[in-house]
Amino acid sequence: MSQPGDVVQDEAESPSWLRSSYQRSAAPMTPDGSIPFDEMIDNGGQVRRHMERLFEGLEALGPGGIRDRWKKAERLLHENGVTYNVYGDPQGLDRPWPLDPIPQVFGAQEWSGIEAAISQRATLLNTILTDIYGPQKLVTGGALPASLVLGNPHFLPACHGLKIPGDRYLHFYAADIARAPDGQWWVIADRTQSSSGSGYALENRSVLSRVMPETVHHCRIRPLHGFFEEYADSLRALAPRNKDNPRIVLLTPGPFNETYFEHAYLARYMGLTLVEGSDLTVRGDSVFLKTLSGLLPVDVVLRRQDDAFCDPVELRSDSVLGVPGLVHAIRAGTVAVANALGSGITDTAAMCAFLPGLCRRLLGEELQMPSVATWWCGQDLPFHSVREKLGQLVIKPAFPSFKATPIFGSRLNSVERSALLEKIRRDPDLYVAQEMVDLSTVPVWSDQGLLSRRAVVRVYAIAKPDGSGYSVMPGGLTRVASSPDSFVVSMQEGGGSKDTWVLGETAAHAQSSRMVPAISTFSRASFDLPSRVADNLFWLARYAERLESGARVLRSLISHLLEDRASEDSPEIQVLIGVLRSLGYFRDPTPAKSAAKAEPPPTIEAQILSVIYDAAQPGSLAAVVHNIRNIAWLLRERISADTWRVLFGLHLAFQRNAPSGPVPLVDALDLMSETIVLLSAFSGLALESMTRGMGWRILNMGQRIERSLQVTQLLQYGSRFAPEHESECVEVLLEIAESSITYHSRYLSSLQTDLMLDLLLADDTNPRALAFQVDRLIEQAAALPGTEAATLTHMAKALRERIGRTAMTRLLARDSDGDFGNLEVFLTEAASELTEISSVLTRSYLTHSQPLSNA
């Protein structure tokens, strides 16, 4: 009898389907026709020992089970907004992260050797960096060519002689390793700048643990969270002050960076503040974070941008990403940066040619994991070797360049080889040649079953908090090529990723996922809200309210159009069209210049569908949803996972309903209802899940200002009806303002304009009324820091007093034209005052920060 969680195979599925399927798909792919090392099955067709547990789990799932799990994994990645932004890709921020459901697996013994080798290599590279930016004995002693160091554009003279705590330049290190046909692991690249991928590795593990829990448990793999806990401890140990509870920020180039998702993900997971360069400033000798409450000192900067961009004053002057004066603050010893500025110099592949000798010289040891054979062309003898064996080599730039791609000598004809050698001869220092490694293959899942792809594994190491060496992540990020004949494994060129499992001796024990240290005092203060983040929260709320208002009006209009009794000339529909026109959704008909050129105006239905679905139309609902999605993306580390899913759900709803042809109005009606429900969920999460800190206050103020403006516009243009149509139009306005039930419970069937205005203007118990919004603005403004809080509070109180003392009878007095002139004036002035409150709030808190009074 099967137990809960068991997967029952289809009768048609063979018990050995996995082996036979993979053997059929594995074909010779090397240039000489030989079969590369395969990570799952040996040359005899047997499953490798360390893959047996996974093999059993996959066999039990069967093709249908794997296919279902894969679809679930893709859905989770999409819902979680896991993306990888390839520059120039038309999908932009929406390009999904490619995860294969078949993990890469390492046995415990093999991984132990890899750990030791990567730890040794990190120690060696850190020692080299310490010398390059210190005494430079390696250069003066001839162990490293001066042109390779001083001629490297990644060498930063401004950082030479900086005092780095504990001489620890390399806090986070990654190595790309590949297996050759003989089973030997080789390092093919070192990443000492600001290596990416560890956050994606963590997300890969999270997803596979959810979609294949029984397989994960059966394989008894080592967990990853302990590595990130030690990483957080290592960063805290760097702090030159406030060691008990330092302020650590993660410096990102911004949302258009290819790995921005990872930056936000790691910041949230490790409890760091995600910042851009504009969020930080240097005052005196210290780095400060700009917040609503003023300037707060920063102790540690975890950078995820190239070091040369980090300080436009002393490094790259054209950078708009960095923090002016950062190098000065490091020199003063008030802030630590990880990795240390200048560490990018050892990213060069040319360094691999010298590492074996440097390892013996500096550590007194042999290099435990060799680099792929490397020749730097800046020396005569290596250049001669390159010339002789160009057909077996890969030519790369000696100094990393984003746009440079490897050149495979085997793919060049004689004329092309001669041209390449001449190019190298003119600037030999700029080129490095490496032996082409015939990468091992791994199984990947596709609609056709299991296929073979070449793979490279990125392994990560962090400096131990006590400075005793390096700890290696028990796993990593396995990347696979995009096609069977591709020798380049790159996410930028369409490659995929795999979770990387390291088998434990026993089942993994549950461990704490605490990512913040215990501190000796309690504090409920929440001051580290950067002004940029506050601005995003403010506009997130405003766009959400704007979207809800438009959706409610459009839903009401579509509902009335779909009713048999309604016609386009009915007073209800005319009021709704007027409201939509006043809100900028519908445009006034353009008079024709001549009768001959007159075109029939678009139908109401066409205008409705355009304002909902046409993202190119400014102010359309689709355009507002796009803005909400982009702002939510900027706030990934600040909003909860549920809040993200709700906001991203809006994006998915409009994406799912994007018309490919004529759209029935009833479908548009359903989309409007779904939009309102999702926005209600967002409001509920903000109300019940956010702590009442500065972020919530700014979000709430944005919501109240926008809702107030929407109410004033609704009433200003919705009250332009003839007296004989009062009851129908009042009913429509109450419906849009979600106040019909309240009104009818008080006044039963009587529909009067004065009662409606009292409910929507002056009733401080109605969450949709203007008075209710202004009361909340007064509360939030009074709680803001700084002297500007008093100004905002005074402005909101003045508006509230005017609402309270305005008599409904005066507002409802019709002028000679039969219009509510006084009401028009009152609402116009109220909207103007609300706009001014928004402007003062923006100037005072969202565009810059004042220093704290005690700073």
**Rg from alpha-carbon coordinates:** 32 Å
Work out the count of structural domains. 4
Unreliable stretches, pLDDT < 50, 5 or more residues? 1-14, 24-28, 507-514, 516-526, 849-855
Number of helices: 27
- Share in helix: 40-55%
Largest sheet: 8 strands, mixed
- Tell me, briefly, the overall form: elongated
Distance between the termini: 70 Å
The average pLDDT score comes to: 86
Structural class: alpha+beta
Strand content: 5-15%
Task: Count the beta strands.
Answer: 19
Task: Please tell me about this protein's structure.
Strands 1, 2, 3, 15, 16, 17, 18 and 19 form an 8-stranded mixed beta sheet that branches. Strands 5-4-9-10 form a 4-stranded parallel beta sheet, with helices on one face. It has 4 domains: 92-372 and 437-502, no CATH class; 373-436, 2-Layer Sandwich (Dna Ligase, domain 1); 530-588 and 604-690, no CATH class; 693-848, no CATH class. The protein is of the alpha+beta class and 855 residues long. It has 27 helices and 19 strands.
List descriptors.
single chain, 855 residues, alpha+beta, Dna Ligase, domain 1, eight-stranded mixed β-sheet, four-stranded parallel β-sheet, disordered N terminus
